[in-house]
Specification:
Elements: E1 3-9, E2 15-21, H1 25-34, E3 38-44, H2 47-55, H3 60-75, H4 80-90, H5 94-108, H6 113-118, H7 126-138, H8 141-187, H9 196-200, H10 206-240, H11 243-255, H12 259-280, H13 285-295, H14 299-313, H15 319-324, H16 330-342, H17 345-402
Antiparallel strand pairs: 1-2, 1-3
Length: 403
Amino acid sequence: MPDFAYIARDFAGQKVTGRITAQTEREVLAVLDQKSLFPVQVSSETSAATTAWRARRVGGQMMATTYGQLADLLRSGVPLLRSIDVLQRQTSHSGLKEVLGRVKADVEEGSTLADAMARHPRVFSEMAVNVVRAGGEGGFLEEALDQVGDFTEKQQDLKSRTLGALAYPAVLAGIGTLVVTILLVFFVPKFATLFERLRERGELPTITEWLLWLSENLQAYGLWLLGALAIGGYFFHKWLGTDEGRLWGDRYKLRLPLVGGILLNLAVSRFCRVLGTMLKNGVPILRSLSVSGAATTNKVLSMAIDKAGENVTAGATLAKPLAESKYFPPAVVEMIAVAEEANSLDKVLTDISDGLDRRTWRQLDLAVRLLEPLMLVVLAGIVLVVAVALLMPIFKLSSTMGK
């Protein structure tokens, strides 16, 4: 059971602190009441850190299975608390078991399932929390959990396929970087004295001058540069966690060549599927737009969808503000416009999501196939530049000596 740290006051108003081991916060409050103490603050001391550390190890496939099993249990008529208890008892993952226990405790104390999940962001993604919240409010929790499981499984499949396809290019890039670094730091400097005569006469090729300059600076400042990059990367990662940094990062992702289109299609697909499901279950359009916008997990698209919601409130159609945002593909906007006129938006949105998913897989396969030869060409080009930079002055020296 987790330990809870508490701050309370007695009848005399004196501050009292301590720790209590209990299953839930409600049990802690009951113990404090028995001691005639008035609680000021009660917080879990061990579970938050332990859960956060273990939660990082929960895989996407396991989470997809958990969502699907919870949906099946609820659909079979098993109450929510009992369903969570069943999942907690059957899971073999210690971190997930602890998280499910805390989710169950929060639900017992009156929290909604979405709110209980939101307290564990390392396990339950922002998209999952928003879709589950929409399902709870709209009365289609089982379908919402099925969708979250499907999204999570597709994301895990996409991640696995991408990492598998990038393994060979990554090895090539690593080996190539290592070889070029060794050449510049240990091999190229040996030619510096050999090329000194050509440098004094001003006959050293420009490309060789650049190569020698790069080699000298790597020798002198290489470790400092590596340390600066590590520190800069750390602070840049921290900045990306802020609202401003996340907005910049989400906007930059959508502009990446090849990858940007794939990420955009995935986000738009999630938006269309969640919005279509909520409209089909009778959730008002404004609430549906708010939740489905958050489900994209991209702040740029979420802001565009929020703006579209404002226009819908003013009586405009949904398609027009989406088109003005420039982020939604024209074909998608056109299909939404026709669906609004035909009053079949919920069905068309699901069809749009299915079509975008198929297009995304094709784009991913194409991007992976192009990446491998591109890496080979880049590495071959770098090695060729180094070789030319070293051979040109050698040939010039040879011709001078022949004369």
